[in-house]
């Protein structure tokens, strides 16, 4: 896929300094630019590279004026960084703008979809599935019975959405994610064996939710596991049955959240955090990586450690912990002196 400087300037509403017909087909860092690539200059410390880069086109701020000769064609914009981000969004939109149904694939006769949808090869679309405008379903995706998928949602290759689940508008479900698998529900019987508790609920993803590759979200035992609007989930996260995650909360990779826990809005949870079940975490909470949360947390807390302490208390305690051998040695010497004087 190639773009000319003139086309890019039109998208960004920028001014061209150089050859408007030069073409690019790839992106690069400014210091690694090669012919046919597009790059940008936003950080002043990278300015020296603009005189040596081999990139065909460079996006720069309008205030930039070269002090030496350059070979790259410039596109001048108000904010180079924002414009480059806008261009990436546009590129992704063009790249994923597929339509139609590829074969082989299976689509139940009772499923509904529009002409703007894309359904990739080897996908399975179950009974009574509803697929809205501009939905993109990539190859090898499984969509179970009675699933609803909102407008502009993208489900990448190999993802699985089990029956009865609801996915909102403008969501992204990445490869290998599993939405709606059974929750981990077992009850011991009189023989000491574990019997499965039926998981009859579903998963609801509200609008603008991103689900990372390999992340699993279990269906509720009863009711719904609920991921609210704007939540962003990294790769390889485990979310158990009946969990609720509030609006605009972000969670990093390898975090595990046990059943029926409720997490508030605008929280930030680091990687490898473990959260027990049946607790409530407030709004605007920040949890540092590898922390263990075993109790209710009020709004606006910052936590670290396992079991987690307040961030300030953890840092104070850690100073003493790392000095513990010296502290113990000093105590032993004091005890010896006391014993010697008694």
From TrEMBL:
Domain of life: Bacteria
EC nos: 2.3.1.191
Active-site residues (renumbered): 241
A single GO molecular function term of this UniProt record: UDP-3-O-[(3R)-3-hydroxyacyl]-glucosamine N-acyltransferase activity
UniProtKB keywords: Acyltransferase, Lipid A biosynthesis, Lipid biosynthesis, Lipid metabolism, Repeat, Transferase
Reactions catalysed, as given in the entry: a UDP-3-O-[(3R)-3-hydroxyacyl]-alpha-D-glucosamine + a (3R)-hydroxyacyl-[ACP] = a UDP-2-N,3-O-bis[(3R)-3-hydroxyacyl]-alpha-D-glucosamine + holo-[ACP] + H(+)
Pfam families hit by this protein: Hexapep, LpxD
Domain UDP-3-O-[3-hydroxymyristoyl] glucosamine N-acyltransferase non-repeat region: 21-89
Enzyme class of the recorded protein, top EC level: transferase
Pathway terms, separated by semicolons: Bacterial outer membrane biogenesis; LPS lipid A biosynthesis
Its job: Catalyzes the N-acylation of UDP-3-O-acylglucosamine using 3-hydroxyacyl-ACP as the acyl donor. Is involved in the biosynthesis of lipid A, a phosphorylated glycolipid that anchors the lipopolysaccharide to the outer membrane of the cell.
Family: Belongs to the transferase hexapeptide repeat family. LpxD subfamily.
Summary of subunit composition and partner proteins: Homotrimer.
Name recorded for this polypeptide: UDP-3-O-acylglucosamine N-acyltransferase
Protein source organism: Lacinutrix gracilariae
């Amino acid at each position: 896929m190639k773009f000319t400087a003139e086309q890019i300037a039109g998208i960004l509403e920028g001014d061209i300094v150089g050859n408007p017909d030069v073409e690019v087909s790839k992106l690069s860092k400014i210091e690694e630019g090669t012919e046919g690539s597009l790059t940008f200059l936003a950080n002043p410390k990278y300015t020296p590279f603009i005189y040596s880069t081999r990139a065909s086109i460079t996006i720069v701020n309008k205030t930039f004026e070269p002090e030496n000769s350059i070979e790259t064609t410039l596109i001048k914009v108000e904010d180079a960084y924002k414009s480059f981000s806008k261009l990436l969004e546009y590129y992704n939109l063009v790249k994923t703008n597929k339509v139609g149904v590829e074969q082989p694939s299976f689509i139940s006769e009772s499923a509904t979809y529009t002409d703007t949808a894309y359904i990739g090869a080897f996908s399975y679309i179950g009974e009574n599935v509803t697929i809205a405008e501009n939905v993109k379903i990539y190859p090898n995706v499984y969509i179970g019975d009675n699933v609803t998928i909102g407008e502009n949602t993208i489900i990448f290759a190999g993802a699985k959405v089990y029956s009865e689940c609801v996915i909102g508008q403008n969501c992204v479900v990445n490869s290998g994610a599993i939405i709606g698998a059974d929750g981990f529900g077992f009850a011991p019987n009189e023989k000491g064996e574990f019997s499965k508790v039926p998981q009859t609920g579903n998963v609801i993803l509200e609008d603008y939710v991103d689900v990372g590759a390999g992340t699993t979200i279990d269906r509720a035992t009863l009711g719904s596991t609920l991921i609210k609007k704007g939540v962003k989930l990294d790769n390889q996260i485990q979310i158990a049955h009946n969990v609720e995650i509030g609006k605009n909360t972000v969670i990093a990779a390898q975090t595990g959240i046990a059943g029926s826990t409720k997490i508030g809005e605008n929280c930030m949870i680091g990687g490898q955090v473990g959260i027990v079940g049946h607790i409530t975490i407030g709004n605007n909470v920040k949890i540092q990586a590898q922390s263990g949360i075993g109790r209710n947390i009020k709004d606006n807390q910052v936590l670290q450690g396992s079991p987690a302490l307040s961030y300030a208390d953890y840092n104070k305690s850690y100073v003493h912990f790392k000095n513990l051998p010296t502290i113990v040695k000093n105590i032993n010497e004091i005890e010896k002196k006391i014993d010697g004087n008694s």
